[in-house]
Specification:
6 domains, Methylamine Dehydrogenase, Chain H, 72 strands, 5-stranded parallel sheet, Neuraminidase, about 1100 residues, 11 helices, globular, 4-stranded antiparallel sheet, mainly beta
Length: about 1100
C-alpha cells in the first residue's frame, strides 16, 4: 500500500486530530462557512471544507476530519452502503480520484492521468467509482468512466461527453449533463451553454431530455426511477423532480430570494443540499427541509498568520535605486529593498493585508514612491528609501481609481503618473498640500493605451503619447511651467516611447510608418502585418547637432578632449530648449536596424538603449491564463561610435530597469534578476542576484483586502458603470459575511465566482491565488489510448501528429519508435507494467523526460523491442489535430472531393494560421465547410469573412496553362459554418459576421453568448486574478445582439449520443448535406473565354 501514498500527504481520521489541526471548538455562534459538495449515507453527511474531507452525524453535531493533508481534497461521495468515500484529491500538481474508508484509514489512489479526474458517484453495487475526465476527448469536453474500487483500467461509459452524472439504481441508465459551462455561476444565463439534463439508456445511448425552457438544470440524482435535480427555472437555484413516466417537472423547494443551491446528493430517505455553504436536508417522505447544526474547529490551518520566504516567483515588479546598489521590489503587496551585493533585505511597508504597488525610487536616492490602498482606496505614499521615518500620504482625488507607473522628475520634486480612466497626472511634491493636476486624457481604452511619460533632464518638460482617431500614437511635449502641451510628431506614423537624451539636446522615440491595419488591435486583419519600426532622434534646438551627422576626425581632438570631459564633475543639467518651428525637419533616423522595438531607455548623454522583441501572436485563449513572458534584446546606440551593440539577449519583457545615471541595467531571465553595465555586453552566464527576504502573511487580512480589491476592479473596469443594474456596494456588503468563515484560499475564489455571477456577463473569470505549496510531479503521456487484454495493457490507438511541428510531436510515431495499435506495453524504463493499477501510474514523474518503453506484438514478451520516447505533459493538441484531420477526410469522402474542410480553433493566431493553411491550401474545391466548434475566440475575425465573401471579378488569360479567375485565392462555391455551444467570444462574433455578410449557412447549435473582452487588470496581492469585462460589443442598430444570447444556427443539429456511438458526427454530416444541396442548386460559375480581339492591323506595303 506504500505506493498509494502521495508524497507529503497526511491523513487524519479522528476528531482528536481534527481538533489539533483546526483548533478548539468555536464558542458562541460560528460564522457562515462554505461547507461544500455534501454527500449522504444512512447515518452521516460528508462534505469538504478547508481542503479536507469531513464527516458529521446526519442529525448534526461536531464534524471530524476523514482526510486532510498538504493538498486540496473535495467532492466526497459515499458508497451505496456508506462504508467508503470516493473523493477528488489534488497532490503533486495532479487532480485524481481516491477512496477512503468512512471509519478512517489509508486512502487509495485510483487514477494517475495528468488531466483532472473528478469523482462523481458509484455503481449501485459499490464495485466501481464513476468519474469524469478529459483523457481521451478534444478540448472542452469530459467523458465518464467507471474504475474498480480496488484499482485497474477505467472503462468509458458509452456517451460522447458529460460533466455531472448519476447512475440509476439498476445501472441501466445515466442521468447527466452533456457538457460543462465556462462560467457555472453566471446568474440568469441564457446562451448556448445553458445546462440541461439528459437521461441515457446505456444499452444504445438513446436519450430522454428533461423538459426545460432554456433553464440551467444540473446535478441530476436518481431516487427510484425519478430524477431530482437543481434548476434556476423559477428564480434562484432550487430543487426539482422529474418523473419520466408522466414527463412532469415539479418544484420541491421554494427558494424565494435566497442564495443559489450549489449542489445536492441523494441518500437514504433524503437529499442533502449545499445551499451556498449551508447544509440542508430535504426529507423525501415529508417534503420538509431541515438544517442540521454542524460545528467545526475554530480556525482552519490556512487562516494562520505565518512567515513566508519570498522567491523569484513572488516578485511583481523590480526597480533599481539611483545608485544601483539596491533593488526595490513589489512582492505580495509589500515594498521591499533588496541589496544587489551586500546587506540585508528591508521590508519598507510591513503591512499585511494592505496592497502596495508600483514602487519608484527617487533619482536622488532618498525616497520611494508607491501606491497604497491603506485608506480603502489607492493613494500615493512616499517614504524614506531606508524605511525610517513617517510616511507621506497624498490623496489622489475623487473619483477613486487604480493608478499606475509613478515617474519621478530628475530633481525629485515632482511625480507624473496615470490612472485607469486614461488620464495623465502631475503632482508637485514641494507644495504643502500636493494636488494632482491633469495633463491629458487619452482617446481609446485599448491594449495600446500607454501614455508613457518621460521627463527632460532639467525637469521642465514631460514627453508622452496620445492616440489619435487613426489609432496611431502622437508624441506630445508638456511644459510644466506653462501647463501646455504641443505635438512633436504629425500623427501619420505610430510614434511611441519618447525619451529625452541625458544631455537634453535630443528626444529619442520609436516610429512605425507602415502600421496601418496593424493598429486595429481587435481585428484579425491586424495579424501578420509588419510591425517593425525604427528609432529616431528629434534635435530639439535649431542650432543642435544631429546624432547622425557625418563624422570627421580632426587634429587636436580625441583623447585629450575625452579625458577633459571625463575629469569634469557632474554639473546641474542645462536648461532644455525646444524649438518647435521646423522641428519636423530635425527628426533623423539613428543607425539602428529596423526591428520590432518595444521601448527605449536613455543611457549616458549621447547614448540610448533600444529594446526589441520577436513578434508573437498569442492565442488569447479566454479559458486559460496569461501568456508566457516574451524574451527581449537590449541594443545600445552611441552617437560617438554609431555602432549598435547588443548588450542583452533573452531578457524577460517588462523586467528592465535602468539606474538614474543610465550606467546600470537590471533585467530578468526566467524571473532570476541580473545587473549589468550599459556600456558593454553583459557577461555570458552572469550570476543571478541572490536575496533572502521574508514577509509576514496574515491570510484573513489578505483575503479581506483582496475581497475589496475585486469589487473595486468590477467598479472601475466593468464596461458598464451601472454594473448591469447590480448594486455593487450592497453585494459587497452581503457576501462579506462569509469572509470570517473561509477555510482556504480556494474558498475565497468560490466566493468571488458566486458573487460576481450576479453581474450576469461573460468572461467574468476567477483564477489562481496562493494555495498549498506542492511540487509538481508531471505524469507523462505517450500519445496513445490503452486497453486491458488478458491482464496486459495493449495500445488501442496511436495518436499521430506532425513530427516536424514542435507543437504536434507524436512520441510513438517518430522515426525509430514506430509503435502500432495492437502492440503490448510490457515495461517502462525496465519496470513491468502493473495491470492492477491504471496504466498512467507507470508514467508518473516522466513528462518531458526521455524514457525506454518495452513493446511487442505478444503479451508474453516474445518479439519485444525497446523504443526511446519523450512523453508529453498533455496530448489534447494531438487529439484535436487528429479529430480535425478525420473530419477533413470525412468531408472529402462524403462530398466526393468537392468540398474543403477548414477547422478554426480560435479567432486569434491559431485560427488565422489554420485558415491561411487549410482554406487557401484547398482553393480549387467547389465549396467549403468551416468548422468553428470549440472556438475559443480572440480577435474579431473580419479577415476570414472578408476572404469568404470574395466573388469572381475577372479572368486572367495566358497562352499556356489554364486561365485564372481573379481573385485567385478564393473558393467561390457554397460556404457552411459549423457552430456549437463551445464557440464563444470571438467564436460568437465569427458566425455573427458570417451571417451579417450573407456568406452562407450556419449549422449546429447556439453559440456561448459571451461577446465582451477582458484584459489589463491588476493582479491580486497573492498572484490571483479576476476579470471585469471592459470591452462590450453591440450591433450597428444599437442593440446587444449577442451577449448572453449567442448566435443561433440556421439549421439546428444536436450531437445525438446514439448516432455518435455508431461513429457518426451528425453536425458535420448535416453541414456536408447542406453544402452539397446548395452546390446542386447553384454550381460555381464558369466563364467562357471570348475570342481574342481581331484588331485588323494594316501593315505598310513595303519596307523599301
Amino acid at each position: 500500500m506504500a505506493g498509494d501514498f502521495m508524497r507529503g500527504q497526511f491523513f487524519a481520521t479522528t476528531a482528536l486530530v481534527a481538533a489539533a489541526l483546526f483548533g478548539a471548538s468555536a464558542q458562541g455562534r460560528e460564522p457562515p462557512r462554505l461547507l461544500q459538495h455534501p454527500s449522504l449515507s444512512a447515518d452521516a453527511i460528508a462534505f469538504d471544507y478547508a481542503g479536507a474531507i469531513w464527516v458529521v452525524p446526519r442529525g448534526g453535531g461536531a464534524a471530524h476530519v476523514v482526510v486532510t493533508g498538504q493538498g486540496d481534497n473535495s467532492r466526497p461521495v459515499f458508497s451505496p452502503d456508506g462504508s467508503m468515500i470516493a473523493y477528488t484529491g489534488r497532490y503533486d500538481g495532479n487532480t485524481d480520484v481516491y477512496v477512503v474508508p468512512t471509519a478512517g484509514g489509508t486512502p487509495r489512489r485510483l487514477t494517475w492521468h495528468p488531466g483532472a479526474d473528478v469523482a462523481l458517484g458509484w455503481s449501485a453495487d459499490g464495485s466501481n467509482v464513476l468519474f469524469r475526465s478529459q483523457r481521451d476527448t478534444i478540448r472542452d469536453l469530459d467523458r465518464f468512466y467507471l474504475i474498480p474500487v480496488g484499482g485497474g483500467d477505467p472503462q468509458p461509459v458509452p456517451l460522447p461527453s458529460g460533466e455531472d452524472a448519476a447512475l440509476s439504481p439498476d445501472g441501466s441508465h445515466l442521468a447527466y449533463t452533456p457538457f460543462g459551462q465556462w462560467q457555472p455561476a453566471w446568474k440568469r444565463y441564457n446562451g448556448g451553454q445553458t445546462a440541461r439534463i439528459w437521461i441515457a439508456d446505456l444499452k444504445d445511448s438513446a436519450i430522454t431530455k428533461v423538459p426545460r425552457d432554456n433553464s440551467n438544470d444540473r446535478n441530476p440524482m436518481f431516487v427510484g426511477e425519478d430524477v431530482y435535480f437543481l434548476s434556476d427555472r423559477e428564480g434562484p437555484v432550487s430543487l426539482y423532480r422529474y418523473a419520466p413516466r408522466t414527463g412532469a417537472v415539479t418544484r420541491l423547494i421554494d427558494n424565494g430570494h435566497g442564495f443559489d443551491m450549489a449542489s445536492a446528493a441523494a441518500g437514504p430517505g433524503a437529499i442533502v443540499i449545499d445551499h451556498f455553504g449551508r447544509i440542508e436536508l430535504y426529507d423525501l417522505a415529508s417534503g420538509t427541509l431541515t438544517r442540521p447544526a454542524i460545528t467545526l474547529g475554530a480556525e482552519a490551518p490556512a487562516r494562520r498568520v505565518h512567515i513566508k520566504t519570498l522567491d523569484k516567483g513572488d516578485i511583481a515588479k523590480a526597480v533599481l535605486t539611483a545608485s544601483a546598489k539596491r533593488v526595490v521590489i513589489e512582492a505580495h503587496g509589500e515594498i521591499l529593498s533588496i541589496p544587489v551585493e551586500k546587506g540585508d533585505a528591508r521590508n519598507l511597508t510591513q503591512t499585511a493585508g494592505i496592497a502596495e504597488r508600483d514602487p519608484a525610487p527617487s533619482p536622488d536616492g532618498k525616497q520611494v514612491a508607491y501606491f497604497s490602498d491603506e485608506s480603502g482606496e489607492y493613494a500615493l505614499h512616499i517614504r524614506a528609501e531606508n524605511g525610517t521615518g513617517a510616511v507621506r500620504k497624498i490623496d489622489l482625488g475623487s473619483p477613486a481609481s487604480f493608478f499606475y507607473a509613478p515617474v519621478w522628475s530628475p530633481d525629485s520634486k515632482r511625480i507624473v503618473y496615470h490612472d485607469k480612466r486614461l488620464n495623465l497626472w502631475l503632482i508637485d511634491l514641494t507644495a504643502h498640500e500636493p494636488k494632482p493636476v491633469k495633463i491629458a486624457t487619452d482617446r481609446y481604452d485599448s491594449p495600446d493605451f500607454n501614455l508613457d511619460p518621460a521627463w527632460s533632464p532639467d525637469s521642465r518638460f514631460i514627453a508622452y503619447t496620445l492616440q489619435g482617431p487613426n489609432h496611431l500614437h502622437t508624441i506630445m511635449i508638456h511644459a510644466v511651467d506653462t501647463g501646455t502641451s504641443r505635438a512633436l510628431t504629425d500623427g501619420l506614423s505610430d510614434a511611441v516611447s519618447p525619451r529625452f537624451d541625458a544631455g537634453g539636446d535630443v528626444l529619442y522615440f520609436i516610429a512605425d510608418t507602415s502600421r496601418g491595419l496593424g493598429a486595429g488591435w481587435l481585428d484579425m486583419s491586424s495579424l501578420g502585418r509588419a510591425t517593425d519600426g525604427a528609432v529616431y532622434a528629434a534635435v530639439l534646438r535649431k542650432d543642435g547637432v544631429s546624432p547622425s551627422a557625418p563624422q570627421s576626425d580632426e587634429e587636436g581632438e580625441g583623447d585629450k578632449a575625452d579625458k577633459k570631459a571625463a575629469d569634469k564633475t557632474p554639473a546641474a543639467p542645462k536648461p532644455v530648449q525646444i524649438d518647435f518651428d521646423g522641428l519636423d525637419q530635425r527628426i533623423v533616423a539613428l543607425g539602428l536596424p529596423v526591428a520590432h522595438y518595444v521601448t527605449l531607455f536613455p543611457a549616458e548623454a549621447g547614448a540610448v538603449l533600444a529594446v526589441s522583441a520577436p513578434v508573437v501572436q498569442t492565442d488569447h485563449d479566454m479559458t486559460q491564463g496569461g501568456d508566457a513572458p516574451v524574451p527581449v534584446s537590449v541594443i545600445r546606440f552611441d552617437a560617438k561610435t554609431r555602432k549598435p551593440v547588443t548588450l542583452i539577449d533573452g531578457a524577460d519583457a517588462d523586467s528592465l530597469s535602468v539606474s538614474a545615471d543610465g550606467k546600470k541595467i537590471l533585467f530578468a531571465r526566467k524571473r532570476d534578476l541580473f545587473l549589468a553595465p550599459t556600456d558593454a555586453p553583459a557577461k555570458a552566464g552572469p550570476d543571478a542576484m541572490k536575496f533572502a527576504a521574508a514577509i509576514t502573511v496574515d491570510p484573513p487580512a489578505e483575503w479581506r483586502q483582496m475581497y475589496h480589491e475585486v469589487w473595486r476592479i468590477e467598479r472601475d473596469f466593468l464596461y458598464d458603470p451601472k454594473a448591469q443594474g447590480l448594486d455593487l456596494a450592497r453585494a459587497e456588503k452581503l457576501y462579506a459575511a462569509f469572509l470570517p468563515g473561509l477555510g482556504s484560499r480556494a474558498e475565497l475564489n468560490t466566493l468571488f465566482e458566486e458573487m460576481l455571477g450576479h453581474i450576469g456577463v461573460g468572461h467574468t473569470f476567477v483564477r489562481g491565488g496562493e494555495g498549498p505549496e506542492q511540487a509538481s510531479v508531471g505524469v507523462g503521456l505517450p500519445g496513445a489510448d490503452f486497453e486491458l487484454v488478458g491482464g496486459h495493457y495493449r495500445f488501442r490507438t496511436i495518436l499521430t501528429g506532425e513530427n516536424w511541428n514542435p507543437e504536434l510531436i507524436a512520441p510513438l510515431t517518430q522515426p525509430g519508435a514506430q509503435v502500432h495499435a495492437g502492440d503490448y506495453l510490457l515495461a517502462i524504463n525496465g519496470r513491468p507494467v502493473d495491470a492492477a493499477n491504471e496504466v498512467y501510474k507507470g508514467f508518473e514523474g516522466l513528462a518531458g523526460k526521455q524514457i525506454v518503453l518495452t513493446v511487442g506484438p505478444n503479451a508474453d514478451g516474445s518479439g519485444a523491442r525497446d523504443v526511446k520516447i519523450v512523453p508529453l505533459a498533455r496530448d489534447i493538441p494531438l487529439r484535436l489535430h487528429g479529430w480535425m484531420e478525420a473530419n477533413r477526410r470525412t468531408v472529402d469522402a462524403l462530398s466526393g472531393g468537392k468540398l474543403a474542410y477548414v477547422y478554426l480553433p480560435d479567432t486569434a493566431s491559431g485560427g488565422f494560421a489554420n485558415f491561411n493553411r487549410y482554406y487557401f491550401g484547398q482553393v480549387g474545391k467547389q465549396g467549403v465547410i468551416l468548422d468553428e466548434r470549440f472556438n475559443h475566440g480572440g480577435d474579431i475575425a473580419d479577415f476570414i469573412v472578408d476572404q469568404l465573401k470574395r466573388t469572381p471579378q475577372m479572368i486572367n488569360s495566358t497562352r499556356e496553362g489554364e486561365p485564372v479567375v481573379e481573385p485567385a485565392q478564393a473558393i467561390f462555391g457554397p460556404k457552411v459554418m459549423l457552430i456549437n455551444q463551445m464557440s464563444g467570444s470571438g467564436g460568437d462574433a465569427l458566425p455573427w459576421l458570417f451571417r451579417k455578410a450573407g456568406v452562407g449557412t450556419l449549422v449546429g447549435v447556439r453559440t456561448w453568448g459571451g461577446l465582451v473582452g477582458i484584459g489589463g487588470y491588476p493582479d491580486l496581492i497573492d498572484g490571483g486574478s479576476v476579470t471585469a469585462p471592459r470591452w462590450a460589443i453591440y450591433g450597428t442598430k444599437g442593440e446587444w445582439e449577442v451577449e448572453d444570447i449567442g448566435i443561433p444556427p440556421d439549421v439546428t443539429v444536436e450531437q445525438d449520443p446514439a448516432k455518435m456511438r455508431q461513429g457518426h458526427d451528425p453536425q458535420l454530416e448535416a453541414a456536408v448535406a447542406v453544402a452539397l444541396d446548395a452546390l446542386a442548386k447553384s454550381p460555381p460559375p464558369t466563364f467562357r473565354q471570348p475570342p481574342a480581339p481581331d484588331r485588323h492591323p494594316v501593315l505598310p506595303d513595303s519596307a523599301e
